[in-house]
Amino acid sequence: MTTTEERPNRQLPARPAGRRPLGALAGLVSAAVALGVAELVAGLVGPSSSPVVAVGDVVITLTPEPVKAFAIATFGEQDKVALVVGTLVLLALAALLLGLGSLRSARLGVAGIGAFGLLGAAAAVLRPAGRALDALPSVAGAAAGITVLLLLLRSLTRPVAGSAPSAGRPAAGPRDGQAVDRLREVLANGDRKGVALDRRRFFLTSGVAVGVAAAGGFGGRLLNRRFDVAEARAALTLPRPASPAPAVPAGADLAAGVAGLTPLFTANRDFYRVDTAIVAPLVRPDDHRLETAGMFDSPGSYTLADLYERTDLIERDITLTCVSNEVGGGLAGTARWLGVPLGAFLRENGVRSGSSQLVCHSVDGMTIGTPTRAALAVEDAMLAIGMNGEPLPVEHGFPVRMLVPGLYGYVSACKWLTRIEATTFDAFDPYWVRRDWAAEAPIKTASRIDTPAALRRFPAGRRAVAGVAWAQTRGIARVEVRVDDEDWADADLSPAVDADLWRQWVLPVEFAPGPHTLTVRATGADGEVQTERRADPFPDGASGWHSIRVTAA
To answer: What does DSSP assign to residue 213?
Structure first.
């Protein structure tokens, strides 16, 4: 009779639950530490050296124009906030994947974090205004992130102690062996590859790391206050203009009597802002220098005090318009500006007749190209130092920006101005021209319906239809409104103050119950009627009549 010895059925320990999620979490925590430490170091080096800011600037530069236009149309002035949020979300996703990959090979996670660090460093250094020191936050952040990742991986990949019986101890029997293996699995959380989870150690390390990340981010914010110029700006007193703005007639602002109508003047806090700077440059008044270079006979260098102390300062009411403004859009605003007359300034520096373009340089490296003839010929063009009775707000170009009425901002309104280079259109393509926007872009005659709002429902009967119209340097002579297919009707205009200032318009309309289509068009003082032809903002500004649908109930 043959007997078969029964062998114990010893199964391999199951993979401990939660190892992969913890690996992903390790990647996320490591990325948070990297960012926190980077922000802390950026607080010492400068806000623009932050890897989020530096990489964001590169993303803005490389983004195709249709995508930029979509972002501005969708998010408006919050487009840069959306970019930063989107960047952080993508970074978080990448960190999760790197954490998972690090469970197989720690080198993958180290290489990934290192690559992001190099990307941030390169983006910071290669910016037009970049310095070698700007790489430090990204490098320090990557080093911290790698260190934390390796510490966390130790808790997830600790080798399991061998299962062979110790010398001098009796070997356990088959059943005893199964019980011992099961006990080791429970206590050590061993997996099939001979590694173990130390959850307690992992979560303790993660908690400390998250604290470091939070402290780094908060500390960076506190340190960045050293670069703040709010106090220095508040200490400035604007000089009195030699040529004040024309007086605004009493009752000129129709917004007081028409709900929903845009005010004649836009408060600084409400003024639109569209630029490529994720963080507005911070320039201390005492450090600012404005230089002229290139095709000037007598190029010079000027402090802010030099500009404040001039005796030919002018004050003007000017409406600015962004080229990205859609038909009926809100990227337009009016302020009372104070500054140095640009034409006189250029002539003092001996601008040469052969110059066709002024390349204006911002402290952050942005370049804006302005036609020299417009800068010389437009009477109210200026180097602005004041806005609505106070020094320029930081986000609007403090301490000095350029303004040339009649031109869209991307070819005339360089913020944080530090250098004016007289050259030609053939010699240099500024930032926006390199992205296929038109080199010259006069503002098109435009009008907008402010009230009632599009798709609004309101009681049938008499109601004011109102809005604004602009045609800088030419002025607005007429605004007409059409209700459905009726004839055009002339709207009442606010008193004319200056050709560079938009005009409000109002037309009382008797609305019958039902849906209605409202359309507006304007005529400039030069006789040019606003074109009906629809055009997108790219490459030289939108055009077309603003039309909305409403319902009277």
So the answer is: H
Pairing of strands 457-458, 546-552: parallel
Alpha-carbon distance 345 to 308, whole Å? 13
Enumerate helices (H) and strands (E) in the chain, giving the number of each: 12, 21
CA–CA gap between residue 184 and residue 14 (Å, rounded) = 12
- β-bridge partners, 448: 468
Q: Give the pairing type, strands 417-423 and 289-294.
A: parallel
Q: Determine phi and psi for 218, rounding to 5 degrees.
A: -65, -40
SS (HEC) of 497-549: CCCCCCEEEEEEEEECCEEEEEEEEEEECCCCECCCCCECCCCCCCECCEEEE
CB 347 within 8 A of CB 528: no
- The Cα diameter of the chain in Å comes to 123
**In terms of C-beta density within 10 A (0-12 exposed, 13-18 middle, 19 or more buried), how is residue 531 classed?**
middle
pLDDT in tens, 93-112: 999 999 999 999 999 999 99
Residue among 148, 123, 142, 145 at smallest CA distance from 52: 123
Give the Cα separation of 406 and 323 in Å (integer): 12
Coil, strand or helix at 258 = coil
The structure tokens listed for 198 are: 């130390």
Averaged pLDDT, 184-190 = 42
Please state the pTM of the whole predicted model.
0.82
Query: How far apart are the C-alpha atoms of 415 and 368, rounded to whole Å?
Result: 9
| CA proximity to 279, closest of 401, 385, 364, 399 | 364
| CA–CA dist 408, 547 (Å, integer) | 23
Place of tokens 């804006």: 368
3-class secondary structure per residue, 221-266: HHHHHHHCCHHHHHCCCCCCCCECCCCCCCCCCHHHHCCCCCCCCC
Which residue, 353, 345, 355, 321, is CA-closest to 335?
Answer: 321
- pLDDT by residue (tens digit) across 34-89? 999 999 999 999 999 999 999 988 888 888 878 877 887 788 777 778 888 888 89
Residue 242 in 3-state DSSP?
coil
In percent, the amount of the chain with pLDDT more than 90 equals 77
DSSP-derived letter for residue 4 is -
What does DSSP say about strands 489-490 and 289-294: parallel, antiparallel, or unpaired? unpaired
The region, left, alpha or beta by phi > 0 then psi within -120 to 50, assigned to residue 529 is beta
Q: What length is written for the chain?
A: 553
Q: CB 214: neighbour CB atoms within 10 A? A: 13
Distances in whole angstroms, Cα of residue 311 to Cα of each of 91, 300, 314: 53, 18, 9
Q: Which of 57 and 547 is assigned the larger pLDDT? A: 547
Q: Please report, as a single letter, which amino acid is at residue 89.
A: V
| pLDDT tops 70 at residue 333 | yes
Q: Give the whole-angstrom CA distance, residue 258 versus residue 251.
A: 12
Per residue, what are the HEC states of 321-369?
ECCCCCCCCCCEEEEEEEEEEHHHHHHHCCECCCCCEEEEEECCCCEEE
Task: Answer left, alpha or beta for residue 127, where phi above 0 means left and psi between -120 and 50 means alpha.
Answer: beta
